[in-house]
Amino acid sequence: MTDTIGRRARSMAEMGEIMGRMGAPDDAPLSIAGFRPRPTDVIITPFGKCGTTWLQQTFHTLRTRGDMDFQDISQVVPWIETSRMLGVDLEAPQRGEPRGFKSHLSYDAVPKGAKYVVALREPKDAMVSMFRFMEGWFLEPGAVSLGEFAAGRMVGGGSDYWNHLVSWWAQRDNPSVLMFSYEQMVADPEGSVRRLAGFCGIPLDDELLALTLEHSSIDFMLAHKDRFDDLLMRQVSEEKAGLPPGSDSAKVRKGGVGGHKAEMPPEVAAALDARWAQTVAPATGFADYAALEAALRAR
Asked: What CATH number was assigned to the domain covering residues 12-297?
């Protein structure tokens, strides 16, 4: 044990050390390698803070006609990579059909043989959302700046955001892949629900459409935010990593598009733009996220 037990991280290095206590190094690789998808399974696999929880809730509402009898959305749409760490049986019966799973894996790493739902999001908005998510849970509020967090998570070469986006963009014509943008989901929730239901093979009537739009709305999810606060992971973070109890791990906060403009310093935005130019532009032909997102909507 170290003297960091019982407190939140005050640096990015300390956050990494705390997160390393949550499980064995081979937990995630063994979870992924041991999972055998069925052709009808739906794996919801955006990068973190790009619409995963929203899609989990939308999917689960569609297949169950509104089930809310859970403490954590990842109890009913389980997270593949964390299954060993959390003691979750991925083969356990689910409450509806088709089976559904959460992931944050790139196309290269995800178990093959299922259907895949991916949402892309402006990296600056995703960065701010991830920073706010970690503050008050793994990070002591005010101890680490947004710039320091960005340098450790998305600007440096170790982040998966860029490779995740590039890997899934290459699969945009794959009939087993349904690709949204977060911005598109915000602008056209009804169209997004219809596309998701059709892709998953779930019959959609007017009553189910209305119910799903209500249950996946920001107001409804905020009113039930205790179901979307990573309870399973938070319990492990407190029991194994020694974080203080009662952390703020809420995943549903404000939603929306373009919020980074009010929070992100220009130098951080410029660093993210540079990573895009270095990694994404050569692979996709798009100079920035706005151009890629416009092309995705036009498909």
From this structure: 3.40.50.300
